[in-house]
Write a structure and sequence with these properties.
binds 2-acetamido-2-deoxy-beta-D-glucopyranose, 28% strand, kinase, Prot_kinase_dom, 13-stranded mixed β-sheet, Jelly Rolls, transmembrane, 19% helix, Leucine-rich repeat, LRR (right-handed beta-alpha superhelix), alpha+beta, 897 residues
């Protein structure tokens, strides 16, 4: 029996079916230098913009045409094209053509692998097929899709000649696969069944899929052209096969089974799509079998209708598609077969951005792009699945262990030898999986307080640093430690006996005096207490002060990006005479501790019941509730970090603070400064902070009457007045804010946190920003711009506190109109005009207008931009007292009425 339906397709039908769909096409001619439009009307672009590596070459084909190509002699790392996906929700076809054709004259076709996103997709072997074309279908849901080539040992240089990106119709190919986040497809076959005249693609297929001719697929076929009626419906098929592909089909003629036997490259899972079109004058029906199993029984192809079937077949090495006749003659018009590939999970975005920040801080391009672990780990990085478990950096300039390292939570091994690290070992306490830490050949000076948190550490290499003082006892808490290398440091004193155990090798050579024997001179171990320096100024030499301000500003500014200055406190000592000089602490009498006492760490632990109850967390550290042996309640502040300034400066400041005693300043009860701890013990104020009382969750706003607010203001101003003028010391608080004003049970107010916050060592800018947020609204703009610090900066901040008391709102908000975001800018014009409608509404009707006027005017003057126009704090105290008395009188009169 012969088939004789052979109706030629009118030419016009072709035109009708040709859509001009080039939106979203990206066609790169690799190594090319000119853009052009090819015979299929596809616009080709030179690839330079999309790839950063590789050398350019070209091949000339025997027929005279030539083709440019790009090869990648740099065998290390990923060689990537980064393809922009303008519509991340779309499905894409990515096609890459690899041509060797002996372009290098070496007759050595390369073998290399190709990855897309995180997935290694295939191995290209140009000795086997040249040119080699790969096609992938994926909805990667990214902005940028990396297509990379990876050399394999002795495989030669990867070489590529074109890269194409094509959007595919929405919903196509996904029905059986579902989730594109974990799967992508690699084309195995796309056959235009029954068609023998070469491949068809764009513009016949508007999506530019290449449909291969059927001619190679013997043993038997009939190729025919059939009319596609104008009302022929493709609407049910999401893959939108072009009509021109469906108008031909392979039809069984002689045997009762139509078979496609398709060898496959790999053992794996495959997605098979069969397309049928009712182009015969009959409606044939047949069973569909895949590898001998019926996957669809009695399938009927209706006349004038197009349809498709898809199957996912798992774990196959070859594929037989068999159509077994039931009625008439089985027919198929097109078929596609894709290998389904798993897409490895990406690393967490926290890890990726931390690594990007680290790359930036090295000042080098480490080639760290896209995912750190897949398809192959970045250089310097080791992975376990999508977890970054090791990081090795050396011979670069990191300077300090930035907090960002603390984000690499899965690290098991961290090697930062020879990276110019200085200061203390910090920010690593959160790395609970860390087993191996190599910080050798740096300039680290202190162990820091987080060492004992590294519960799983096994190897700790600290050789050739500048570690000073004693080896902290807490290292003994690291039970798994079996190598501790402390060679070539400046450590001294006996090693803690608890480190003397069989499972642990401690290397100590090259230190001042370090061993388990107690023969070392212990007197030197307390050096931090004995050598602090105090900077002394002549009170008359104003110039010196501003120089110091500028100097500190510049130094801090460089590190802390201006903002952090707000957290520093600058202490001046007024001496009767003499030049600016430094004196060793040994010359300062021990009685300068005042009434503050020195606590041991053990005592602190007892006092706080082992740090049981945290009552606050500030820029400085954590605050814990504590109880002294006598029953007195205290607030115990434990610093997060020591600073670059180190222990000496801590001792200096404690020494100064311990001399400050005033009823409106929270007093220092004592401190603890054992090698790795810096702890301050303050009197405990049960009333909470002014900020808590104004804005706290359990807002006591209503209980804060105007007279109470004025009392608090007077108290706090008196405290500041004492700091500025009250003693031999001249102290600028530098962090006056409503949360630094504490209340006792009688609503007496005391200023706290003075003089110490400068030791917040934050050279990491991102952390400074988060810390600064709370204080930003209090910052003296003039100090901020000139970096010249005077007491007037405290006055400004205090003025902001006054405005808070008056208006009952925080200094910065993001509600309301932009005009009202900043309390100072918003409130000042109203208050200056005596427009008291902006006064806290809970005060409405309960304040004396003159009292309010006095308070608001002094508040407005305090927040003048020009520091010279601001009052001194003593004047503020006087004015507030007036306002207070006026309000008392008002209350007295209104009570009498
Ligand atoms: C080629 O494409 C352009 C638009 O991209 C279109 O205007 C032109 O008609 C096309 N030419 C052919 C021969 O299809
Ligand atoms: C690749 O190019 C670089 C400079 O562009 C050149 O130094 C190198 O020799 C080239 N490599 C090969 C294998 O041609
Ligand atoms: C992105 O693609 C989806 C599906 O193809 C489409 O619905 C959507 O309109 C496209 N969005 C843009 C901005 O092109
Ligand atoms: C259009 O399709 C219908 C079936 O849906 C068929 O009956 C009709 O003959 C077709 N039109 C032409 C012109 O062939
Ligand atoms: C596919 O068919 C060929 C011959 O038709 C047969 O030799 C082969 O075993 C079949 N493969 C499978 C997996 O059924
Ligand atoms: C196949 O299906 C058609 C209708 O779709 C039905 O008429 C016919 O009897 C079925 N044949 C077999 C063998 O089941
Ligand atoms: C440390 O790194 C510097 C470059 O930063 C390098 O010059 C030096 O040789 C390295 N030292 C060691 C001991 O590796
Ligand atoms: C740490 O790094 C240094 C420098 O590469 C190396 O000599 C030393 O062996 C490393 N330490 C460990 C414990 O691997
Ligand atoms: C390590 O320290 C020792 C002793 O200070 C010194 O001799 C040696 O050169 C240092 N090694 C390196 C690589 O700096």
């Amino acid at each position: 029996m012969e088939f004789s339906w052979l109706i030629l397709l009118p030419f016009s039908a072709f035109i009708r079916l040709t859509l001009c769909y080039q939106d979203g096409f990206l066609s790169l001619t690799c190594g090319g230098s000119v853009n052009y439009v090819d015979s299929s009307n596809v616009s080709w672009t030179a690839d330079g913009y999309y790839v950063s590596k590789g050398n350019i070459s070209s091949v000339v084909f025997p027929e005279g045409t030539s083709r440019s190509l790009r090869f990648f002699p740099d065998s290390l790392g990923r060689n990537c094209y980064r393809l922009p996906l303008h519509n991340t929700s779309s499905l894409f076809l990515v096609r890459s053509t690899f041509v060797y054709k002996n372009y290098d004259g070496l007759e050595k076709p390369p073998v290399f692998s190709v990855s897309l996103g995180t997935a290694i997709t295939t191995t290209v072997n140009l000795a086997h097929t040249d040119p080699w074309i790969e096609e992938f279908v994926w909805a990667p849901n990214k902005d940028v899709l990396p297509l990379c080539f990876h050399s394999i040992p002795n495989g030669g240089f990867a070489v590529v000649s074109s890269v194409e990106l094509r959007p595919l119709p929405l919903g196509a190919y996904s029905a059986a696969l579902g989730d594109w986040s974990s799967k992508l497809m690699r084309k195995a076959y796309r056959i235009n069944c029954g068609y023998v005249d070469g491949p068809l693609r764009y513009p016949l297929d508007p999506y530019d899929r290449i449909w291969d001719a059927d001619e190679d697929y013997s043993p038997y076929h009939v190729s025919s052209g059939f009319d596609i009626d104008s009302n022929f419906s493709l609407s049910g098929i999401k893959e939108s096969p072009p009509c021109v592909i469906l108008q031909t089909g392979r039809v069984l003629a002689r045997w009762n089974s139509l078979v496609y036997a398709l060898p496959l490259d790999n053992l794996g899972d495959y997605h098979v799509v069969l397309y049928f079109a009712g182009i015969l004058p009959v409606s044939p029906s047949f069973d569909v079998l895949i590898n001998g199993n019926v996957v669809y029984s009695n399938y009927t192809v209706a006349r004038w209708e197009a349809s498709s079937l898809f199957f996912t077949v798992r774990g196959i090495r070859s594929l037989n598609v068999t159509l077994k006749a039931i009625a008439y003659y089985p027919l198929v018009n097109a078929l596609e077969v894709y290998e389904i590939l798993d897409v490895p999970l990406e690393s967490s975005s926290t890890t990726v951005s931390a690594l990007q920040v680290i790359q930036q801080s090295t000042g080098k391009d480490l080639g760290w792009q896209d995912d750190p672990c897949s398809p192959t780990p970045w250089e310097h990085i080791g992975c376990d699945g999508n977890l970054v478990t090791s990081l090795r950096l050396s011979d670069i300039n990191l300077r300090k262990i930035s907090p960002i390292f603390g984000d690499l939570l899965d690290l098991k091994a961290l090697d930062l030898h020879n990276t110019s690290l200085a200061g203390e070992i910090q920010n690593l306490g959160g790395l609970q999986h860390l087993e191996k830490l190599n910080l050798s050949f740096n300039r680290l000076t202190a162990f820091g307080s987080e060492m004992e948190d590294l519960m799983n550490i096994r190897v700790l290499d600290l050789q050739n640093n500048s570690l000073q003082g004693e080896v902290p006892e807490s290292l003994a808490e690291l039970k798994d430690l079996h190598l501790l290398n402390l060679e070539n440091n400046k450590l001294q004193g006996p090693l803690p006996q608890s480190l003397n155990r069989e499972s642990l090798e401690v290397r100590t050579s090259g230190n001042l005096c370090l061993s388990f024997l107690t023969t070392c001179n212990e007197s030197s171990s307390n050096s931090s207490l004995q050598t602090p320096q105090v900077t002394v100024f002549t009170p008359g030499k104003r110039k010196n002060h501003s120089h110091l301000g500028v100097l500190l500003g510049v130094v801090c500014g460089a590190v802390l990006a201006l903002f952090a200055i707000a957290f520093s406190a600058l202490l001046y000592i007024k001496r009767k005479r003499g030049e600016s000089t430094s004196i060793p602490k040994s010359e300062v009498d021990m009685h300068t501790w005042g009434s503050a006492r020195v606590f041991s760490y053990k005592e602190i632990k007892t006092t706080t019941n082992n740090f049981k109850q945290a009552i606050g967390r500030g820029s400085f550290g954590c605050v814990y509730a504590g109880k002294l042996p006598g029953g007195r309640l205290v607030a115990v502040k434990v610093r997060f970090d020591k600073t670059q300034l180190g222990g000496e400066s801590f001792i200096n400041e404690v020494s100064l603070l311990s001399q400050i005693r005033h009823q409106n300043l929270v007093s220092l009860e004592g401190f603890c400064c054992e090698l790795k701890h810096q702890i301050l013990v303050y009197e405990f104020l049960p009333g909470g902070s002014l900020a808590d009382n104004l804005y706290g969750a359990k807002s006591k706003k209503l209980t804060l009457s105007w007279v109470r607010r004025l009392k608090i203001a007077v108290d706090a101003a008196k405290g500041l007045d004492y700091l500025h003028n009250g003693s031999d010391l001249r102290i600028i608080h530098r962090d006056v804010k409503s949360s630094n004003i504490l209340l006792d049970t009688e609503m007496n107010a005391k200023v706290c946190d003075f003089g110490l916050s400068k030791q917040v060592a934050q050279s990491d800018a991102s952390h400074v920003t988060t810390v600064v947020k709370g204080t930003a609204g209090y910052l003296d703009p003039e100090y901020y711009s000139t970096q010249q610090l005077t007491e007037k900066s405290d006055v400004y901040s205090f003025g902001v506190v006054l405005l808070e008391l008056i208006c009952g709102r925080e200094p910065l908000t993001h509600t309301g109109t932009p005009d009202s975001f900043n309390l100072v800018l918003w409130a000042k014009p109203y208050l200056q005009a005596g427009a008291f409608e902006i006064v806290d509404e809970s005060l409405e009707g309960s304040f004396d207008a003159e009292s309010m006027r006095r308070a608001s005017l002094i508040a407005c003057r305090s927040v003048e931009r020009d520091a010279l126009c601001r009052p001194r704090i003593s004047e503020v105290v006087a004015e507030l007292k007036e306002a207070y008395n006026l309000q008392l009188n008002y209350l007295g009169t209104s009570a009498a009425n």
